[in-house]
């Protein structure tokens, strides 16, 4: 899964659904799920700038105390919906790419080293479960036509003759069995 590192308290504002645009000087073709990483940087100056921005925009919101904002790890997730250069959002800054965000929510904090730009997170807690194993005979005989060799792929097997893709073991029907030839 991909992540984006953001300074606090901006990361908190995103994960709690207040900030719907993240400003960047660069763009990406990526759209989809995105983990929010709170960078290790947590300064009183950035906190004050955020409070001043909220006041200028007329947003009446009390931020958590600076020392309570988690840093140096994953704090939430959202969906990167689009990237535009002219967003009507009050969070959009002129001359920047506007990462349009949605479906934001906080997650339990997980410490993690951040990186610049979008970066891959390989932590087991954020990797989708692997597909169920496919029902195939260890010697590669097709259950349907019993004559072709099953060619292993990265995540599934397919018969090179009839094109049959076996179902996972846990969904075999009544009376069905794996090939025993």
Brief description of this entry?
This protein has 2 domains: 2-126, Archaeosine Trna-guanine Transglycosylase, Chain: A, domain 4; 131-181, no CATH class. It is 10% helix and 29% strand. It has helices spanning 10-15, 44-56; strands at residues 2-6, 21-24, 32-38, 73-84, 97-111, 118-120, 150-152, 157-159.
Strand % is 25-35%
Query: What would you report as the Rg, rounded to the nearest angstrom?
Result: 24 Å
Share of residues in helices? 10-25%
Looking at the structure, the CATH topology of the largest domain is Archaeosine Trna-guanine Transglycosylase, Chain: A, domain 4
Low-confidence stretches: 134-139, 147-156, 167-181
Please tell me the total number of domains. 2
CATH level-1 class of the largest domain: Mainly Beta
Tell me the number of helical segments per DSSP (H or I, 4 or more residues long): 2
| Class per helix and strand makeup | mainly beta
């Amino acid at each position: 899964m991909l992540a984006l590192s953001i300074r606090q308290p901006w990361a908190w504002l995103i994960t709690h659904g207040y900030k719907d645009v993240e400003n960047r000087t660069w763009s990406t073709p990526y759209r989809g799920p995105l983990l929010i990483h709170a960078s290790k940087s947590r300064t009183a100056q950035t906190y004050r700038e955020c409070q001043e921005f909220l006041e200028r925009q007329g947003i009446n919101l009390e931020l958590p105390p600076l020392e309570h904002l988690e840093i140096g790890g994953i704090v939430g997730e959202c969906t990167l919906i689009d990237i535009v250069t002219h967003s009507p959002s009050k969070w959009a800054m002129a001359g920047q790419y506007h990462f349009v965000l949605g479906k934001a929510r906080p997650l339990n904090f997980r410490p993690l080293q951040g990186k610049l730009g979008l970066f891959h997170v390989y932590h087991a807690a954020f990797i989708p479960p692997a597909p169920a194993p496919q029902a195939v005979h260890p010697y590669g005989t097709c259950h349907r036509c019993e004559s072709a060799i099953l060619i292993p792929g990265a995540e599934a097997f397919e018969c090179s003759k009839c094109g049959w893709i076996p179902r996972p073991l846990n969904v075999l029907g009544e009376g069905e069995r794996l090939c025993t030839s």
